[in-house]
Amino acid sequence: MNNDCWYKDVCNQECTPSCIRYLEMSYLIANSDIPYVLQNPPKLEATVDYDKYVRLQEIKDNIVEFVSSGSNLLICSNTTGNGKTTWAIKLLLKYFNDIWAGNGFRVRGKFVHVPTLLLKLKDFNNPLTEDEKNRLLNSDLIVWDDIASTGLSQYDYSQLLSYIDQRILSKKANIFTSNAVDPQDYEKAIGIKLTSRIVNTSEIIVFEGKDRR
């Protein structure tokens, strides 16, 4: 029995090491950089954000259409710890669940913690590989977590703008999470052009719930 299997509570097939469903999902998730503790995200219960949860569930139910149409989503709140990242990962995992069959060895989605990416982009002794750059540009869906959390240097700005701009122009789907709500706060942190790319192309969902951590 694979105790970490995503389907263990609903699958009625014999559990074997050669289960294609498990192997395909394992590959997708292993190459997504989703943090291990969030690979099986907790159940979230809506309080003041009930209507937002309903909308997110609609997107989740139609996630393949969301991705294939190159849609963008911004989940934001002035409060930390109220489910933004968890919801973004739930959407990414639902996409994997819907497209795993016959996927083979294609990387289809990525979780990117933006502050960590920015540090990596400046590590000139260990630069991003061409494969890593290609995945940032061409994965079907990317979760850009914690964007606009800090100000950007000119180098940070040019790099982040390049990746996000090319994805939007190529109709590649993106989910952004942020602790900024006011567009002026985005402009201060990440500049006018990047703010325009994110805010003006995304459906925006603002959480008002309290920190649950």
C-alpha-based Rg, rounded: 17 Å
Contiguous helical run count = 9
Q: What is the CATH first-level class name? A: Alpha Beta
Category from helices, strands and their pairing: alpha/beta
Mean pLDDT: 91
Strand arrangement, major sheet = 2-3-4-1-5
Query: How many separate domains?
Result: 1
The unreliable regions are: none
Proportion in β-strands: 5-15%
Order of helices and strands: HHHEHEHHEHEHHE
CA distance, first residue to last residue: 31 Å
Largest sheet: number of strands, sense, barrel closure: 5 strands, parallel
Task: Give a quick rundown of the structure.
The chain is 44% helix and 12% strand. It is an alpha/beta fold. The chain has one domain (44-206): P-loop containing nucleotide triphosphate hydrolases (Rossmann fold), CATH 3.40.50.300.
Structure description:
- The protein has a 5-stranded parallel beta sheet with strand order 2-3-4-1-5, with helices on both faces.
- Helix 2 (50-61) packs parallel to helix 4 (84-99), helix 7 runs parallel beside helix 9 and helix 8 packs across helix 9 (192-199).
- It is α/β, with parallel strands linked by helices and 213 residues long.
- The longest helix is centred in the middle third of the chain and has 16 residues, at 84-99.
- 44% of the residues lie in helices and 12% in strands.
- It has one domain (44-206): Rossmann fold (3-Layer(aba) Sandwich).
- The chain has 9 helices and 5 strands, in the order αααβαβααβαβααβ.
- The chain is globular.
